[in-house]
Design goal:
The protein has 17 helices and no strands. The protein is an all-alpha fold. The chain has one domain: MFS general substrate transporter like domains (Growth Hormone, Chain: A, Up-down Bundle), CATH 1.20.1250. α13 runs antiparallel to α15. The longest helix is centred in the last third of the chain and has 55 residues. It is globular and about 60 Å long. This is MFS transporter. Keywords: Membrane, Transmembrane, Transmembrane helix.
Length: 431
């Protein structure tokens, strides 16, 4: 593990251990590799069972109502974020917090396996409601994992190696996702429900393997002050938005950057309208998204260790410009031959931008504070963003019924504003 750590973390010139204890420093090579394995497996699972691609295809095949499809992404994203102020209070009460991630991963595996059963046994409204219910539980478990992960990361991995780790996680997951998408493009359009159920079972197995790897992380007990649970304790954390100016600006910038993720289904919808062959497009866009993460994440990760705010800002700007260009392209109604290369290329660029947004804002958030304050930052920001994401998703769905292009353009404009705010955040990296 020492050798692999030195290669991946570029730590061959002496151990760098900023912002962690000496005993944690000694375990950092092994913890780096275990965290990498666990999160790469979970990321591959998330992309195979994506609420933006795979789950809509399954619900469509099962004949679920259209309104079920429109709720997939809002439930998946906001469901994992909204409760995090309350989850964060419970996590703070634990001196060792990796068990929260392991338990959450196990629950997510069970939910995906149950979705596979639904795909083979139910149809119509019943199937739609069952999958939405399971996705809600899945998202709540994911919220617990998110809070625990960032806190364990801050306790076990040196400050100047966290962005690098996140970059390798996304890169490995991107390679596996690209391969999965490539296989799907070779399958016939009528792959059948058995194929979709099989994808969900594979995703469930990956989450179980991820939980096993994460359980082997060596985590030393940390602070538990302020770990009381309950509504009052959780709501009190909202005062951070009022009292902490840097944190407040970060949350505003992150909210404006949501378009890098929300725009993806609209890109696919515009491409489908012009190119058709939805089953083929599923494989193409999954593969392109994986390729984008594969080639860009290590670069974003290394840059994040030097300046995570600049990574966030640059990625926001890229996503914003791309969305405005895509909207203009669609309005121009150019020939289909040009659209065949334009949309996959634009989706690749959006994948690169989204990877940068995620890596930049995650690294910035972890580096902003230590101990329980970091846990509070994660919980409050994710809960607020979850609420805004749900509201934005509903508004976006309504706006898209009038003009998909206008919706994409507005998301792009928000991203450009977020890039400006992100550029002016205070530097917190020390690489």
């Amino acid at each position: 593990m020492e050798s692999l750590y030195e290669r991946l973390a570029e730590d061959d010139e002496g151990r760098v251990c900023k912002a962690i204890s000496d005993e944690a420093c000694r375990e950092s090579p092994g913890n780096f590799v275990r965290t990498l394995v666990a999160n790469a497996l979970s990321n591959v699972s998330d992309r195979i069972a994506s609420a933006k691609t795979t789950l809509p295809w399954i619900l469509g095949a099962l004949g679920a109502p259209a309104w079920c499809l429109s709720l997939l992404v809002p439930i998946r994203e906001s469901g994992s974020m909204l409760p995090q102020m309350f989850i964060g209070a419970a996590v703070r009460a634990r001196a060792v917090r990796k068990g929260v991630w392991v338990a959450g991963g196990t629950v997510q595996a069970a939910c995906l396996a149950a979705m596979a059963v639904v795909a083979l046994s139910l149809e119509g409204l019943a199937a739609g409601l069952a999958i939405l219910a399971l996705l809600t539980l899945f998202s709540l478990a994911r919220g617990a994992c998110s809070v625990a992960y960032k806190d364990v990361l801050g306790k076990t991995i040196p400050k100047t190696r966290r962005g690098r780790l996140s970059g390798w996680i996304s890169s490995f997951a991107g390679f596996a996702t690209m391969a999965t998408g490539g296989v799907l493009t070779l399958l016939p359009d009528s792959g059948g429900l058995g194929l979709y159920a099989g994808l969900l079972l594979v995703a469930a197995g990956l989450w179980l393997a991820a939980a096993g790897a994460y359980s082997r992380i060596v985590e030393y007990p940390g602070a538990t002050e302020g770990g009381a649970n309950g509504f009052t304790e959780a709501m009190a954390r909202l005062s951070l938005l009022r009292d902490d100016a840097l944190f407040r600006r970060f949350v505003v910038a992150r909210a404006l950057a949501m378009g890098s993720g929300l725009a993806a289904p609209f890109y696919v919808a515009l491409a489908r309208d012009e190119l058709g062959s939805a089953a083929l497009l599923l494989g193409i866009f999954i593969a392109v998204e994986g390729l984008a993460a594969l080639v860009s994440s290590p670069i974003w990760g290394r840059w994040s260790d030097r300046s995570s705010r600049l990574v966030f800002s640059a990625a926001c700007a890229l996503a914003g410009v791309l969305s405005i260009v895509v909207a203009a392209w669609s309005w121009a109604d150019l020939p289909m031959a040009a659209a065949q290369w334009f949309y996959p290329l634009a989706f690749f660029g959006l994948g690169v931008a989204h990877a940068g947004v995620r890596l930049g804002r995650k690294t910035y958030l972890v580096d902003m504070a230590e101990g329980n304050l970091r846990t509070d930052y994660v919980a409050v920001s994710n809960s607020v963003i979850g609420l805004l994401l749900l509201a934005t998703g509903v508004v976006g769905a309504i706006a898209a019924t009038f003009s998909v292009e206008a919706t994409v353009a507005l998301l792009g404009l928000a991203g450009l504003i977020g890039a400006v705010i992100g550029r002016n955040l205070r530097e917190v990296s020390e690489g």
